[in-house]
Each structure stands twice: as C-alpha cells, then as structure tokens.
Amino acid sequence: MSSNSFAYNENSGGGEATELGQDATSAISNSGAVGLFSSDLKKNEDLKQMLESNKDSAKLDAMKRIVGMIAKGKNASELFPAVVKNVASKNIEIKKLVYVYLVRYAEEQQDLALLSISTFQRALKDPNQLIRASALRVLSSIRVPIIVPIMMLAIKEASADLSPYVRKNAAHAIQKLYSLDPEQKEMLIEVIEKLLKDKSTLVAGSVVMAFEEVCPDRIDLIHKNYRKLCNLLVDVEEWGQVVIIHMLTRYARTQFVSPWKEDDGLEDNEKNFYESDEEQKEKADKRKKAYTMDPDHRLLIRNTKPLLQSRNAAVVMAVAQLYWHISPKSEAGIISKSLVRLLRSSREVQYIVLQNIATMSIQRKGMFEPYLKSFYVRSTDPTMIKTLKLEILTNLANETNISTLLREFQTYVKSQDKQFAAATIQTIGRCATNILEVTDTCLNGLVCLLSNKDEIVVAESVVVIKKLLQMQPAQHGEIIKHMAKLLDSITVPVARASILWLIGENCERVPIIAPDVLRKMAKSFTNEDDLVKLQILNLGAKLYLTNSKQTKLLTQYILNLGKYDQNYDIRDRTRFIRQLIVPNEKSGALSKYAKKIFLAQKPAPLLESPFKDRDHFQLGTLSHTLNTKATGYMELSNWPEVAPDPSVRNVEEVIELAKEWTPSGKAKKEKPAKKFYSESEEEEDSSDSSSDSESESGSESGEQGEEGDSEDSSEDSSSESESGSESDVENKRKAKRNSKTKGRGDSEGGETENEKSETSDSSSGESSSIEDSSSESESKSESESKSRKVTKEKETKIKQDRNLITKDVSLLDLDDFNPVSVPVARPTPALSPSLIADLEGLNLSTSSSVINVSTPVFVPMKTHVLLHRMSGKGLAAHYFFSRQPCIFGDKMVSVQITLNNTIDRKIENIHIGEKKLPTGMEMHVFNPIESLEPEGSITVSMGIDFCDSTQTASFQLCTKDDCFNVNIQPPVGELLLPVAMSEKDFKKEQGMLTGMNETSTVIILAPQNFTSSVILQKIVNVANVGVVPSGQDNIHRFAAKTVHSGSLMLVTVELKEGSTAQLIINTEKTVIGSVLLRELKPVLSQG
Known about the structure:
This is AP-3 complex subunit beta. The chain has 46 helices and 16 strands. Among the domains are: about 45-255, Leucine-rich Repeat Variant; about 510-605, no CATH class; about 850-970, Immunoglobulin-like, CATH 2.60.40.1150; about 975-1085, TATA-Binding Protein, CATH 3.30.310. Strands 1, 11, 12, 13, 14, 15 and 16 form a 7-stranded antiparallel β-sheet that branches. It has a 5-stranded antiparallel β-sheet with strand order 2-3-4-8-6, with no helix packed on it. A 4-stranded antiparallel β-sheet has the order 7-5-9-10, with no helix packed on it. Mean pLDDT is about 75; it is low at about 1-40, about 265-275, about 655-790, about 795-800 and about 800-850. Helix content is about 50%, strand content about 10%.
C-alpha cells in the first residue's frame, strides 16, 4: 500500500490545483486577492458538513464524491476524521464506501484508524460478506506492529468463513501480515495449508500467491492439492492462472523426471549394419519403455493446453513457458501458433513475446520456421521491435529460406531508421557466418552497399566486411583495394579504423596500396579520432616490419607525432611500438619477435546472438527480460534423476471414487461445464499402455493433436458412462442441460442433425459423447458389453467423418498464421508478374513470356545405388534422374528406379513404406509390385518435390517380409529444367538478378576445355540446363529454371585472356546458385 500512497501523493498536485482554480474564481469575485490564499482552508468544507449531516442521502452523496476524488488521483486525506466517524453507520452502502476510503488512507492515518479498531472487529461478524471482507482489508492496511495479534486472529477466522470472497481477502491479508511481521510465518503457513484445500476457484489464485510470497520452498503443501489445482486452473481468474501456472512449473521440475530423455533416446534412428531387425526392434522397445510419463505430469500439460487460447497475453505466455520448461520437446511446438498470435497485441506485449521467441528460436528453430513471415518487419514497428524481429529471422535462417530472407534484408537496408539499417547489416554478416553457402553472396551485397549515399550504412558495412574477411582473407584482395579507396570519403571513426586494420593485416597482399594509405594517414594524423590514430600506429608498425624500405621514414614521422599526442593511450602505444620495432641498444628480447607479435594469425570473430545466454533464466520472467537476476527471482531446479514417490499426491476422496472414476463428480453438480476439463484426471488410474499412447499422440503438435485428444476423451467418457451407475447418468443429464444454458447446445444440436458438419472442437466433442453415452445406456442397459461395442462403432464412424471435414476457425486458426510447408517464394504461373511481386516479394524475372521449358540437351545415364543387394537381402535397387518433366506433378523431379531380384526365389509385395521427409517435401510413390521373379528386373517411376533444396528424401523400401531404410539425395543440377530463351531476354533477366543474386568465380581452364563443344558437354553433364544462342565466341550462356518454384538459373562462362575464365551464376535461389558454382568449378578446371 505504501507505494500506492506515494503515487497518489505525487499525482495529487494537479488535482488540487484544478480545485483551487475553481474555488479561487468565486473567492476573488467576493473578496479580491485575499480570497486566492484563503480558499484552500475552505476547500472541502461542504463535504465535511455533508458527512456530519443527519441524512444518509447526504452522507452517501459525500462519500461518492470523495471516492470519485480518490479515483481521479486527488488527495482526500484531510477528510479522514470526518469519514472515520461514519464507520459505524447502519447504512450498508455508506459503510462500503467508508471502507473503500479507509483501505486507501489507513496506512497514512494510523492513529485515527486505530481509534476505530473495535468497529472493524465488530464488522468482521457482519452478516454482509462485502462488509466482512472490507473490514479485513482495512485491518491489514493498518501497518502497526501492535495490532499483529488482532490481524492474525481475524485472518484465521476469515479463512474459515462461508463466503469464498472473504476467504480470498484472507489470503491477500496473509501477504500483508507477513511483510509487517515475518515472525508470524509458521502460523501463516498453517492458514495457507488450510486455504490450499479450498475448492473455490475464487480462492485458488490468491492462496497460491500467498504461498509464493511466504513459503515458496514448502513443496510438501502442494502434494495433496496438486490435482485439484490442475483441474481448477481453467476456471480461476486470469491473474490467478498466471500465478498457479508459474508455481506448478517449479513444482513439476522437482517432482517428475525429465521428459526430454525420451526425445533424445529416439533421435538416433540409424541401424547398425550387423544388427538384425529383431535386435533393432528390441532396442526400440527398450527406449520406449525407459521413459513413461507420470500421469500427474500429463495432467498438468493437458489441463493448461486450453489456456493457450486465452484472451490474456500473460496467461498465454505463462502456458508457453510451462510447455517450454516441462513438456516433451516433441509437444512444445504447439505454443508457437499462440505466441505468434500475441504479436497482434500492443508494442509492449510484442516486445516481451519477441524476447522469449528469440531465446526459444536459438535452441529449437523448427518451432517457428512455419511462421517466418510473421516476423517480417513492418514500417510502423518501433526500433526495439524491429531489432528483435531481425534477431529471430537470423536465428531461423537456414539453407532453404536464406534467399527469401536476403531479399527481405535488402529492403530493410534502405530504411529511414538508421539504427535499424545498421542492425540489418550486422544481421547479414551473421547469416554469412552461419550459412557458408551464402558467404560470398552476402559479401558481394555488402560491397555494393559501400557505394551507398548514407554514411552510417557504409560504415556499418565496412565493420561487417572486416569481420567476414577475417574468415578467408586470401580470396578477397580486390575488396580490400576497394575499401582503401573509401578512406577519402568515409568519416565515421569505427569504419576508418576497420579499413586501416584490414590493410595492416593484409599489407603483404596489397604491397603497393598500403604505403600510400599510410602516407595519406600521416598527413591527417593530428585531426583523426583516437581510435583511428591507434590503427594508424599499428599500420605503420606492420609496414615497417614488412616493407621498411618504403615506409621507414613515414613510420618514424608518425611515431614522433604520437609521442606528443594529448591522449596518454596513444603516447603509451607509441613508446611501446618504438621499443619493439626500432632496434637499439636498449631493445629487449621481444624485438626479435616483433613480426610474429604484430602479424600473428588472428582468430575470426564469433558473431553470436545476444540471446544465447538468456536461456538459464525462466522464460517470461523479469530476469529473462533484463538478462540479469532480479530481486525475488527463484531459479528452476534441475530435473531429478529418480522421480519422488508419486503416492504423496493421492487423496483419500479420490481413492474412494477410483472404481467409477468420475473425478469431478462433486464439482459437476455445482459446475456441470467442468466435464470438459476433467478428461485428464480420467487418465490417472488408467493402465500404463494408455498413458504411453497419450504421450505418443501428444507428440503431434497443432490442431491434429487437439482433435486426437478430444476424440480419445469422448471415447473414454462414452464407454465409462455405460459402465457407471444410474446416478452418473443423472449427473450427465444435468451436465448436458446446464451446458446447453451456457451456449454449448448449439454445437450439440448441430452434431445430431448432421455429423458431417461436426468440428474438432473438444468441448462439442465432449458434449456429444455425453449425449450418445446417456442415450445408449438408457436404451441398451441390459447388456454393457453390447452397448460398449455399439458406441465404439459409432465413435469410429465419427472419427472417419472428422477426417473428411474442414475445421472451425478458432482463435488460433487465422489465415495469416497457417503454416506454410516451406518458407520460400513460390510463384504461380497463372498470376501476373506484378501481382506475384506484390504478394510474394519475388523478382519480376518469372515472366512466362520468356520462360519456355525445352527438351534436355543431354541425359546422363549415371545410376546411384539406392539399396545394395547385401543390405536388401537379395533385392537391389538403383536410381537415376531422367531429366523429363514429371507426370505426377509440375513441381516434382522425375526419378527412375530399377529393381533387381538377385536371389533364386521370387520377392513379393515390393512397395514404399514409411516416409521420413523434411517439412514441405512431397513424394509420389510407385504402385506396389506383386512379385519379382528370380533374376528379374523392373523399372518404375517416382516423383519427388525436393522444394528446391538438396535435402535427403528418406523412406522405406519394403517387401512382404522386410523394410529397408533408403535415401535419395539429388545433385543440384537435377533440380533444374532447361529453358529456351533469346540472348536479349537472357541479358534482360541477368540485369535484374544482380547484387546478392549474383555469384561468380574465376577459374583456370585446362587447354583442351577452351572449345565451345567441350564446355557445353561438361556443363550439361553436371546440370540440366538449356543452351542460349550467343553472338560472341568467348561467351557461353545457359539457362534453366528450378523445378519447384520456377526461379530462373542463368549460367555464363566468359573466356578471358590466357587460360582463365569467369563463371557467373545469376539466380534468386542463392543457395542453389552457390552449390552449383562449387560443382561446376572443378569440372571446368580439370582436363
């Protein structure tokens, strides 16, 4: 309360001034200037007179005005004596408002409040629950140690009150009393233990908050109440939900074993060469049996799942951190859609959510990859949001989506927000270091930015280029020369210092330019920034050691300038360098090692995420946001190696009901709608096999997982309702009637009228199962087994129907959150190029007027081993790429598979089994082959959509008796289709694909490779490209488009003087372009 009172006092000045002005107007008119100063004394006289009136109406009106003043932030403390006289009023309305006033000012006017303490004690016995609760609030607000025993007694009595509202206020008072007198802790813990057993949702959140404040380490108090809290969670108010979820997260980390072992154990799917299938199956079974999720652990995860659709951002964030910290990794993906939904909230909520997503995306990229476009920066975003989105995009970048992201970054660099533009350039640098395929592309793009008009952009580019060049300095002499020329125009000290450091490090590679740069720098030495001066000294020292003939006098001149500089750092550096590099009698033993010291190989810098080390803080906490331990922060404990005894959570009442197991039976009579959330409790005493199946089904994230859960629960409830007693049926009828009054009858009615319009919403699924089960138990009560069978058949039919229907749009199923299969651009030929550019951010080069697929120039018949005859127990398989448009789909690559039977008996039922494809990849399989005769051979066709990536397509090739794991990995050249185009169109398209979309290298050709026929043969052997007519003998052009997205791939081989040639590839798909360049370079170089 103290902090609130200070806030009111600070704000009170404005309110008083307003009133002062109003009163002053009348005062001045009556008595001149003197009234201006005397008005303050009579300010609230009318209110005091009204409070002393004999009429209740006047008192009520006065109290309403006073409470209104408090609400506006005005100071009404001077009215305390007049208000406190009315504390014993018989009018309930007046008494309520008096208590509201006293709660606000009791702490400030403690002496006057103490005079009325007997009145408050009498009010604790008042028949009106609001008066009892208000009296307790006033008592707990009088922060005087002398009344601690009275407060303690009042809290004990209130904790046993019949009204849940009074018990809730008792829980609030516990925290106030503990802060006033910590010695009362043991007695307060007794009250907390009593209130934790309370079954009211109104009390639950408040008592858990009191538990967290007073005794957060007393986990033993939670054991018996754990299941009850899990089941009450959905009906508690939002503030209470947040508190309970955070407490249960800590509880779960101490009471259950880690579910992450399950994921780690099942990751290794590779089969040992000498292992038989039986041994492998046994190992897999052991892995699965090694971890079985505790039913109470599953209860918590399932009961918090519906809260992901809460309207309150704090609740969604709390559930997200719970899933992150305690659920199996395979199930944590469900939170991504909910967190992305929160990005539509205010900028403050966005900031917190994005910070947490940034931390998550470092460890588990796959969770947020489908929502990549949700993290694109908007022009209206503030800088802090833009920077966080950039961080997330960098974390999510991979070979598949980097080309899309680089196009996005190109737009960001042009932003008017210079801080954001600089952050984007740093992001491009991090992508270049993380994804080696695009390092050259990013470097070329950053070099282009060096000609930008904006000095900040140029400076930041220089700093990032410097870091990138440290990785492979030998290959980039031209860039260093280009940057040396910029010294005349760049004025930002950090950029100038970076250029000088680069030239110094590579002075032996630019022997002509380096001395000239030093000469220019010597001229402007006195006017440079201290950071630049230090680098000039370093450059002089390095050149003195490597090229003393040209730079000796210059270096001595610079050292003399540095000797008398105003900055003592520069003077110290000058003395150190002079002693180290200029040999004299006083030189120490270090002088002989000067060259090794200055020109030592420096390690390349690590460009790491600033969120890398935040994961040791609990998500959603203040400590995580600040990246430092805040006061009161409680760290999450590590998972126990062995789970503590789960029987401590068993409650006697639950054991008695275990035979029927209608866990919320009592609650159901009070709150029939509770049935939806009690499904997780039904699992607690079920067999291990059912809990295993739940943990497996839970691994499917998204709406499918929810659908499966709702179907399982409806099946359980229907089968149990038939085996239950008559009273259970009656309870369910009541539940059905009450749920209809709460608005759930519509979904039930729709289901009985037309099953095909049924949705996967779990609440409607639950209510329909109640209807079905009750009607079944009434009509076929003579045979339980028969009714069970009928219900199961009905449920099976409903499940089949559900697979065919579309889902309802829920809060999370909004259009722009639908996961895309692959986060890359996909142009549709039916759309106009401009519309594609607007919608997809694509280049206009996908114009259908110039792209015509032609026949392949050459089809290499090289085959690849798919399955060796030894591994396949006599079945051998080879595959090759036919380079023809696929008949199964225009985005698929055609693959021909030849199957051979190498044993003396026929092989039956050859077919494709389980497919383990990366996200977005699709496969059209061949029809099963009934039998393959001994020494027989057959060729079949398949279509695979590789999504323009060289990722492996893994699947099982099966026979009647066995299944074999096989892989198909396409060479990058087979992901293309040849196109026919004119030289004019080629040049036009090439002009649009420059900057980051262009990759080039210089190669040394073997003499026999200089003829056009040899170049043609070598290139079409590697890549499925078409030949473009060329009017110049020394330039050879080839064109193709990617099979999946239709992006152009333009290849140019330009023969230079001597035996060199330049190989240039222009494409939007920069990753594929870089890989193709790597594959073509050695082919053209060798003889």
